Amino acid sequence: MATQRLFFAISLPDEMQQQLVHWRADNFPAEAGQPVVAANLHLTLAFLGEVTPQTSQQLQTLASRIIQPGFDLDLDDAGHWPRPGVVWLGCQRAPRGLLQLASLLRAQAARHGCYQSPQPFHPHITLLRHATQPVALPPRGFHWRFHVSTFSLFASEYARGRTRYRALASWPLTSQDPHALLSSS
Fold first, then answer.
1. What is d(CA 44, CA 39) in angstroms, rounded to the nearest whole number?
2. Residue tagged active-site, from 42, 80, 130, 143
3. I want to staple 170 with a disulfide (CB 3.0 to 4.6 A). Which of 53, 80, 115, 152 is the partner?
């Protein structure tokens, strides 16, 4: 049975993707690492790995039952993880809604046999890969904010030497009561 490499994530608005690409070019030299293309910039909620079509369908059904309000996400932190070679952009204070959504998706994935990293969830957007040498981070003071109103299931597809992320399905977050509870029944 064919499998697909899948993950749940939050997409960035197109305009923000372009802003981040320009900011990255202004703040990191070309030798710092391999830039992630604008269309692939996202914030992973739960990495699922290789998933069968049946498991994918089960996870999509569960995702469609999530009832949670949207939230604002502030991108105001950056860092470098030398071992995996990643330069990232993230948030100094992750909003509660983001942590709840990621926790729920990761738990559902684990219950369906999808590998979940033992590392705690660290919300971030990968800007550069293969950044194994020390990288000078830009001074504080950068900040982007956007409202998260949907999350999606993506397939990671590799062809002709390039990785492309394709949204398979998306689900809205509610714009109602900010104290709404999560539902996974």
1. 14
2. 42
3. 152
Query: CA-based diameter of the chain, in Å?
Result: 49
Give 3-state DSSP helix, strand, coil % of the chain, rounded to 5.
Answer: 25, 35, 35
Give the three-class secondary structure for 133: coil
> pLDDT (tens digit, 9 = 90+) per residue, 77-112?
999 999 999 999 999 999 999 999 999 999 999 999
Residue 143 is a catalytic residue: no
Place of tokens 């942590």: 99
Residues in the chain where the model's pLDDT stays below 70:
176-185
Domains of the chain in sequence order? 4-159 (3.90.1140.10)
Residue from 124, 130, 143, 147 carrying the catalytic annotation = 124
Cβ-based burial of 146 (10 A; exposed 0-12, middle 13-18, buried ≥19): middle
CB 178 within 8 A of CB 35: no
